[in-house]
Design a protein that fits this description.
two-stranded parallel sheet; Rossmann fold; binds tryptophanyl-5'AMP; single chain; Tyrosyl-Transfer RNA Synthetase
Length: about 325
């Protein structure tokens, strides 16, 4: 059984891009693969976090995983910081990566440009920690949105390099699984930027916990262009984004959605996209609230997941430690 693995940062609550680009696509793997899905709080602290908000966002995100259909009986669900092997392997991988390759990461360039002269070191090492997340579990398939492709490439490079240097099968070489539709949902306030958890612009991001009213308001205000009627030719980035959102929600192609709107006003597209998104998110919202009502049970699920995750993680880490020459009683 091939291993499938993915994760989301807990810097804020999850948004529509996280759902359509990633989370939604994890669910079908659960029946026929060995699955690890987790919440990456070590990644979250690469930029300053309010501790209370971080803890709350982690719990809400975990509840959202369950509400979206992740089943703790089928998949291993846990919080990254509860499995210390992630940080341990990250150090070894750091020593097998170069400043040059990490400096080329576009996400690092984007994020570091917001920090002036005080760029957090964690931001630079972030992709190595992500490689550790993946390689620890010998993951074959990693379902992610389009923005994680370069990080996956780095994980593949490090794995290949260490396999060559130490032993051929030390790590499985992971493959990114990126959907054709919904892999890059754009901000509703600026359709040239991707939708993100930390976008300060009002109305830019649809959070999975937003009320139906908020969703409607945000879509009504979505930035499009100065036109008013949809033509059958080229359309602007803002309109295209709404087509993609509808398409990903309905299992259609953006072209099919476009065809249904030719000759109609922008206003209809906005209102109907809000309705479709709300239909998808309403049951998730309700279920998330129900799950959060029993935090004890939620924490027990995560604890159990961490215990199971550690068994696999330790196996890989032991093999890595043996390979690089760290001594243990068990290696004698
Ligand atoms: P994060 O938390 O930024 O995003 C989580 C997942 O959501 C996808 N995504 C999007 N998809 C479509 N449109 C968007 N606007 C959009 N924004 C985000 C991301 O591609 C991702 O799949 N580094 C990762 C988290 C991570 C991880 C891992 C992922 C840490 N370790 C190991 C996979 C495997 C990140 O920051 O994702």
């Amino acid at each position: 059984m091939a291993t499938v693995l993915s994760a989301i940062q807990t810097t804020n609550q999850l948004h529509l891009g996280n759902y359509l680009g990633a989370l939604k696509n994890w669910i079908p793997y659960q029946d026929e693969h060995r699955c690890f899905f987790f919440l990456v709080d070590l990644h979250a602290i690469t930029v300053p976090q309010d501790p209370q908000a971080l803890a709350e966002n982690t719990l809400i995100s975990a509840a959202t995983y369950l509400a979206c259909g992740l089943d703790p009986q089928k998949s291993t669900l846990f919080v990254q910081s509860a499995v210390p092997e992630h940080a341990e392997l990250a150090w070894v991988l750091t020593c097998h990566s170069s400043m040059g390759e990490l400096s080329r990461m576009t996400q690092f360039k984007d994020k570091s440009s917001k920090h002036g002269a005080h760029i957090p070191t964690g931001l630079f090492l972030y992709p190595v920690l992500m490689a550790a997340d993946i390689l620890l579990y010998q993951a074959k398939y990693v379902p992610v949105g389009d923005d994680q492709k370069q990080h996956l490439e780095l994980a593949r490079d490090i794995a290949g390099r260490m396999n060559q240097q130490y032993q051929k099968n030390l790590f499985t070489i992971p493959e990114p699984m990126i959907q054709k539709v919904g892999a890059r949902i754009m901000s509703l306030a600026n359709p040239d930027a991707k939708m993100s958890k930390s976008d300060p612009q009002a109305g830019a991001t649809i959070f999975l916990t937003d009320s139906a009213k908020d969703i409607e308001k945000k879509f009504k205000r979505a930035v499009t262009d100065s036109g008013s009627v949809i033509t059958d030719g080229d359309v602007s980035a803002g309109i295209k984004n709404l087509f993609s959102i509808q398409a990903a929600c309905l299992g259609k192609t953006p072209e099919q959605v476009h065809a249904g709107y030719v000759g109609r006003q922008y206003g209809y597209l906005k209102v109907e996209t809000a309705e479709i998104v709300n239909q998808v998110l309403e049951p998730i919202r309700t279920q998330t609230a129900q799950i959060l009502a029993d935090k004890g049970q939620l924490l027990a699920i995560l604890d159990d997941g961490a215990t199971r995750a550690r068994e696999t993680a330790r196996e890989t880490l032991n093999a890595v430690y043996n390979s690089v020459g760290f001594i243990r009683k068990s290696t004698l």
